[in-house]
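Memo to structure team: turn this sequence into structure tokens by end of day. - J.P.
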Amino acid sequence: MTPDVVRKSAPCTTDVFGSAEDRRRSTEDVTDLHERIERAERRAEKAEQRRDDHERAVVTRARIDQVEGILMSGFGLEPDDAFDVLVWLSQQTNTELVHVCDDILRAVRTVDVPDACRDEITAVLDRLLRRTA
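Reply from structure team:
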């Protein structure tokens, strides 16, 4: 005989995908993971930008130092005075400092060094190289 009373069961709180609470937590975990990944990607981009900026600064500083050396050698200036001249030129021409330096470097590279100077420089370099060998 079958009973006349149908039993009512409690509402189902689990299924093959777990409980509703488990699914909610899982969704929160995935969202948290995505946010952490996005933050890590932003940090990586910032680090790459800082590296690129640093590399650019090193190259720029080297060009400025080269021109300072040219001014010091050619005009007997102290390092600070040579830099001040470059800043003044930059301001007077409304040109970025590094571009002023690039212009000077291009001009210096196109100058022909007289044979007598070239021979003297070669002799000095030879003496220096023999000292270090």
